């Protein structure tokens, strides 16, 4: 038994560093000076737009979290829930599979409140994964990616739509809510957990915030001269994001580079890896640091507002 437990622990340890090993292999087989030179040529206006859209995306997703866990109009509740989201987002950036985002549950006391926030995280994930799948499938089916059968792209789009639909039913469907109610008594008030109006607003914010995420990435691509089109850029970023959700790497290292090299195989390697480097610095690290600072500010003010 001890041997099996040891093997299990070692397996998960090795699994977490797969992406980093791939990243090292990629670095060992490229011209780093050419990549760095390309990154330094990024146009400031596009870099600014990418950062600005990252800022808006964080605020929108923070508001989405507020709608699900508080949904009251008081300034204190808004700053508290937005701060919770931003801090957990920052922790999620540096944890495999973004598992750090589960710390949001720790802000809520009581079994029912924790269960409600846990279901809210499932809805968040379902919405974001669903839209990522739709953009990835659209790029596979209609973008400029390496030749892929149209049917594969349509299948991915369908799966994405089902993921979004399932996550919305979790909060707005009476039968789903009653099933949750049997597991955790008093989890929902009335016939549904959140209600159709709230879930509809959550769905709209999910769509809009993810489009903003892809626009931010698109501006970075334009900034280093990677003119692959919005749909293809979005699809590549979506595929990399989906792989990053698997706990095999941190900050998307390795999985993002391999994905981009495949998706943008028709473009200069230095430009592709420069784009990946900017995604790491601006979106991953920059977004994480910005979220942590904004989160602490929001939580600071929430404690001082009566």
Textual characterization of the structure:
This protein is mostly helical. The chain contains 12 helices and no strands. The protein has helices at about 1-15, 20-30, 30-40, 45-70, 75-95, 110-140, 150-170, 175-185, 195-225, 230-245, 255-265, 270-300. Helix 6 packs across helix 9 (about 195-225). The protein is globular.
Rg, Cα atoms, Å: 20 Å
Cα distance spanning the termini: 55 Å
Mean pLDDT: 81
Low-confidence stretches: 1-9
SSE blueprint:
Elements: H1 2-16, H2 18-28, H3 32-40, H4 44-69, H5 75-93, H6 111-142, H7 150-172, H8 174-183, H9 196-223, H10 230-244, H11 255-263, H12 269-302
Helix pairs in contact: 3-12, 4-5, 4-6, 4-9, 4-12, 5-12, 6-7, 6-9, 6-10, 7-9, 9-10, 9-12, 10-11, 11-12
Question: What are the salient characteristics of this protein?
Answer:
mainly alpha
Write a compact overview of the structure shown.
By secondary structure, the protein is mainly α. The protein is 75% helix and 0% strand.
